[in-house]
């Protein structure tokens, strides 16, 4: 019958398409992978990634948490986590993550000079990402938080298709140009069948420390509107606060250095 012929064609097409995709293989020792992403740079993605990793560990001291900096061109995890130096190698030639505040961290920033630019083409970047995913001895982790580079390109696709991901978190400011890219990021993860856990609205409001007047520098509630449109949850609404910036720049993120503060 024509319906069974259509079904057979669909199955054949799916088989051919799946041949071109890499097989998803879990990272050894890692139970859950959460990716932190944004379509646009400069929205506080790395700051959020660092504080989320520290919060996961602070929330439950029985959980082991790791943090992977997948931003090859602009790694910022070493500075924010106050880590320096080259990773040691295990007898199996795997890199040992550097550790601070109880979080195991791996970043391109540990492998190059701090001021050296990474002037690489796409294939070299993909090779580096593959090494950071597969040639690191993470031990036993309950959560691996991956700080993704901005955009929806090779790195995002490679990470999404190579390893099973429990969920993605999209970070954006309420500004219209950031929201356009955040929407693209959310749609990309849906296309590659990665569940989007929700959105974080960052730099949402600035309160003057003297007169307490509140100013919505990047606009008000834009991420909330986007979440409604996409049918997603708002996971957090983070103010534009000098403490959050200063503590990360000093390598003492606010979750660990000022756990009782509003920020």
Automatic annotation (TrEMBL):
Keyword Mitochondrion: yes
Cofactors (names): [4Fe-4S] cluster
Single GO molecular function: ATP-dependent FeS chaperone activity
GO biological process: iron-sulfur cluster assembly; mitochondrial respiratory chain complex I assembly
Predominant location: mitochondrion
Localization per record: Mitochondrion
Keyword Acyltransferase: no
Keyword terms of this UniProt record: 4Fe-4S, ATP-binding, Iron, Iron-sulfur, Metal-binding, Mitochondrion, Nucleotide-binding, Transit peptide
InterPro entries: Mrp-like_CS, Mrp/NBP35_ATP-bd, NUBPL-like, P-loop_NTPase, YlxH/NBP35
A GO CC term attached to the entry: mitochondrial matrix
Family: Belongs to the Mrp/NBP35 ATP-binding proteins family.
Function: Iron-sulfur cluster transfer protein involved in the assembly of the mitochondrial membrane respiratory chain NADH dehydrogenase (Complex I). May deliver one or more Fe-S clusters to complex I subunits.
Database matches in PANTHER family: IRON-SULFUR PROTEIN NUBPL
Protein name: Iron-sulfur cluster transfer protein NUBPL
Organism the protein comes from: Nyctibius bracteatus (Rufous potoo)
Chain's gene name: Nubpl
